[in-house]
Write a structure and sequence with these properties.
This protein is of the alpha/beta class. The protein folds into two domains: 160 residues, Nucleotidyltransferase, domain 5; 172 residues, 2-Layer Sandwich (Nucleotidyltransferase, domain 5). 45% of the residues lie in helices and 18% in strands. The chain is built from twelve helices and eleven strands. The strands form two sheets. It has a six-stranded mixed sheet, sandwiched between helices. α10 links the parallel β9 and β10. Bound molecules: 5'-O-[(R)-(carboxyoxy)(hydroxy)phosphoryl]adenosine (KG4) and zinc ion.
Length: 361
């Protein structure tokens, strides 16, 4: 075993019982270069996000190679800025955390290699965190009172699922999409409507001026299961727009955005609500980038009020990609004795959405 790993293991074990644990966390899975400093999984001492949205806008979506190159340019200054914002030095840091997946492989590798270098240089434990678990943790930094167990509706660019979070590191799958994620669906519909990247927030904005008057031609799937399917709806909206264009009809973008958003948010809200009712669960947590959607937040709020369910909505800045959520989840991995990585750690395009304390890295 290498000298580094011996030291990292020993420090990792000691941190389980340390009173205050300060983690420097790194996130580079898509188009945000982010570094944060988080204390005890809940207090965000620094949260630096260098977004590449403007760079990718002219391509209509994230170009993986461009994303990787820009992560390389930004990552070092982001980590210096984070330490400065936290008013700390490297000697004050107890561990380094990094998103190792899911995401764009080239983009992930920038963060992973930077984190490995820092961990090796500073002789600190390296904690490999799943991006999707980070999205759940965004709620621990948003709500100091939130503790498991709870039900989580995970709606990101990469995942759409209902999860049962039994404990910080015990996450079970109730149902998930069998094809597209809801974020992909928002982005594709936005694109066909000629809206700029990222599509989701622009659909959300446009829908506010529209009416739910358009009926798309598609079959509603999975009435009786907790799984989702969005590809049929996505294709129906795309066909609707193309047909209208071919006939030279006026494209009522606002109404299309509104009608599409109503269907998607209804499907998400209804399904998770049905699960809550059937199981008698009383706590619901929203997670992931699409969790910023105003209509989804509205619908969940109304349902939860009616049904005496306590709803936790992540603060908007922690909804979309950031490193604070990664530092938060890393703390709970650490306290449960999981996630310690060695210097062979690499990025993974896909990772398991479920979690338990027997998981090996
Ligand atoms: O969670 P996230 O930042 O990335 C992944 O982990 O995949 O989610 C990004 C997704 C994009 O598809 C984006 O269009 C969508 O979240 N999104 C929204 C809104 N804000 C971001 N979708 C609908 N309404 C929004 N307000
Ligand atoms: Zn994300």
């Amino acid at each position: 075993m290498s000298r580094y790993l011996d030291i990292a293991k020993e420090k990792f074990e000691k941190l389980k019982d340390k009173k205050d644990v300060i983690i420097l966390s790194i996130e580079s899975s898509c188009d945000e270069t982010a570094v944060a400093v988080v204390k005890n999984g809940r207090d965000v001492l620094a949260n630096v996000v260098a977004t590449q949205i403007e760079i990718h806008k002219r391509f209509g979506g994230v170009v993986p190679e461009v994303a990787s190159r820009n992560h390389i340019l930004a990552i070092s200054s982001c980590s210096q800025e984070a330490l400065k914002e936290a008013n700390l030095e490297t000697k004050d840091i107890d561990a380094i955390a990094v998103t190792y997946g899911a995401g764009l492989i080239g983009a992930l590798l920038v963060g992973v290699n930077f984190a490995k270098t820092l961990a090796y240089m500073l002789e600190l434990p390296l904690i490999a965190v799943s991006h999707v678990h980070g999205h759940i943790s965004a709620n621990y930094i948003s709500h100091k009172d939130l503790t498991p167990p709870f039900v989580c509706l995970m709606v990101s660019g990469g995942h759409t699922a209902i999860l049962k979070v039994e404990d910080y590191c015990q996450i079970d799958l109730v149902g998930s999409t069998v094809d597209d994620s809801v974020g992909e669906c928002f982005d594709k519909v936005a694109r066909v409507l000629g809206l700029s990247y990222p599509g989701g927030p622009n659909i959300d904005k446009l829908a506010k001026n529209g009416k739910n008057v358009i009926k798309f031609n598609y079959h509603e799937p999975f009435r009786d299961s907790y799984n989702f399917s969005f590809s049929g709806l996505k294709t129906a909206v795309v066909n609707f727009v193309h047909n209208a264009e071919q006939k030279g009809e006026i494209i009522e973008k606002e109404n299309i955005a509104c009608s599409f958003q109503e269907i998607v948010t209804q499907e998400l809200a209804e399904k998770v609500m049905r699960y809550l009712k059937e199981t008698g669960e009383k706590k619901l947590v929203l997670a992931g980038g699409v969790g910023a959607n105003s209509r989804l937040r509205e619908k969940l709020t109304t349902f939860c009020e009616k049904n005496d369910v306590k709803l936790y909505l992540p603060i908007l800045k922690y909804c979309t990609d950031n490193a604070a959520m990664i530092g938060s989840m890393a703390f709970y991995y650490l306290k449960n004795g999981i996630g310690l990585a060695d210097l062979s750690l690499t990025g993974k395009p896909n990772v398991d959405i479920t979690l338990n304390t027997k998981k090996s890295w």
